[in-house]
């Protein structure tokens, strides 16, 4: 009869495909039970978005079979997302992800919405902040324009209770002021609002907090990067030169000492349009985001074509990643890439 030491010895030959260390060393084997010729255990992944679960399962089964081919083995997967920094964690938020662009109109909010919902679909606890104080669009994209968050008393402080939609906890200035009213604030007020949208909200426990930042490199970006432990940023650009120039400036900002944030990757949006004849049309230029990725040695984590269904889903308040469409798979792949990079970086 095999014992736990035998099983763990064999499982120490199975590597996590991303972190490149074995499951036993990573303490990922949980609740190991041996009952005669039956073995069961859980594998605690560093992200629920792991796309290689079946490979890990197969590698484990292969190793167990080397002990005894008659053993029946049951493997279940759980996940525990690694925090960016336990010591500096804010309000049980394990990871803050900044979605930004140098230029407006590149689809940043659409991408932020779909990343948030995509990560949630994979089993993560996700929050979303619409930090574009002056032009909030997240309420439209989540079909909650006419809703208002509740407030909860916490000592002498009024805490915002976020709206919940499609499994996402979200807050936006667009939910706090009438949608037909402009917000006319100077920089310090916008910065104060940015802090409040994180600190004065009842987020609960989150694996990922997505922050949809405004275009450019403004006070809001500085406030976020200097006051909160931001796990990483994702840069959104179109292939067009006027977009990639500004995207490069956004990356430059996050590479400076006072506003240092790890750049997780670049997403090239609106890369091309495919006509009914199947021909690709490069409306905004060709491969500008890809060239920027190569130039700066930053991974291209997504390439999204122009699809009418994406904009229609945003306008109707139902993110495209919730639908069974080909372009949805691209967003899911982006979510896998982001979760993978965060897991690897946080383990270091």
Number of helices: 10
**Global geometry:** globular
Approximately what portion of the residues adopt beta-strand conformation?
15-25%
CATH fold description of the largest domain: Rossmann fold
Helix content: 25-40%
Question: CATH homologous superfamily name of the largest domain?
Answer: P-loop containing nucleotide triphosphate hydrolases
Structure description:
The chain has helices at 4-11, 53-67, 108-121, 138-141, 187-199, 219-227, 241-255, 288-296, 308-316, 326-347; strands at 29-35, 38-45, 72-79, 96-100, 126-130, 150-154, 157-161, 163-165, 168-172, 208-212, 230-237, 263-269, 273-274, 280-281, 300-304. It has 348 residues and is α/β, with parallel strands linked by helices. It has two domains: 4-79, GMP Synthetase, Chain A, domain 3, CATH 3.30.300.130; 86-347, Rossmann fold, CATH 3.40.50.300. It is globular. The two termini are 38 Å apart.
Fold topology:
Elements: H1 4-11, E1 29-35, E2 38-45, H2 53-67, E3 72-79, E4 96-100, H3 108-121, E5 126-130, H4 138-141, E6 150-154, E7 157-161, E8 163-165, E9 168-172, H5 187-199, E10 208-212, H6 219-227, E11 230-237, H7 241-255, E12 263-269, E13 273-274, E14 280-281, H8 288-296, E15 300-304, H9 308-316, H10 326-347
Parallel strand pairs: 2-3, 4-10, 4-11, 5-9, 5-10, 11-12, 12-15
Antiparallel strand pairs: 1-2, 6-7, 8-9, 13-14
């Amino acid at each position: 009869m095999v014992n736990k030491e035998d099983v763990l010895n064999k499982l120490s030959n199975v590597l996590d495909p991303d972190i490149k260390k074995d499951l036993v060393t990573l303490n990922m084997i949980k609740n190991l039970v041996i009952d005669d010729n039956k073995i069961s255990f859980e594998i605690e992944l560093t992200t629920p978005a792991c796309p290689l679960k079946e490979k890990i399962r197969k590698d484990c089964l292969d190793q167990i079979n080397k002990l005894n081919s008659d053993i029946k083995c049951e493997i279940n997967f759980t996940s525990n997302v690694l925090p960016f920094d336990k010591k500096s964690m804010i309000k049980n938020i394990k990871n803050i992800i900044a979605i930004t662009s140098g230029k407006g109109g590149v689809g940043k909010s659409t991408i932020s919405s779909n990343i948030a919902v995509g990560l949630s679909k994979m089993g993560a606890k996700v929050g979303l902040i619409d930090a574009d104080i002056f032009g909030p669009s997240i309420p439209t994209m989540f079909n909650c324009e006419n809703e208002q968050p509740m407030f909860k008393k916490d000592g002498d402080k009024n805490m915002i209770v976020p709206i919940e939609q499609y499994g996402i906890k979200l807050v936006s200035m667009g939910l706090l002021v009438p949608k037909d009213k402009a917000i006319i604030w100077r920089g310090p007020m916008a910065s104060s609002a940015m802090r409040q949208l994180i600190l004065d909200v009842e987020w609960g426990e989150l694996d990922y907090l997505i922050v949809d930042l405004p275009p450019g490199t403004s006070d809001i970006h500085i406030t976020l990067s200097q006051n909160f432990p931001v796990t990483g940023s994702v840069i959104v650009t179109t292939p067009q030169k006027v977009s990639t120039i500004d995207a490069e400036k956004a990356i430059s900002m996050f590479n400076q000492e006072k506003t240092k944030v790890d750049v997780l990757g670049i997403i090239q949006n609106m890369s091309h349009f495919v006509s009914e004849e199947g021909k690709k049309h490069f409306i905004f230029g060709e491969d500008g985001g890809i060239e920027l990725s190569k130039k700066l040695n930053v991974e291209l984590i997504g390439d999204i074509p122009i699809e009418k269904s994406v904009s229609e889903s945003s306008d109707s308040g139902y993110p495209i990643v919730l639908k069974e469409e080909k372009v949805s798979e691209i967003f899911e792949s982006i979510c896998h890439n982001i979760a993978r990079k965060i897991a690897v970086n946080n383990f270091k």
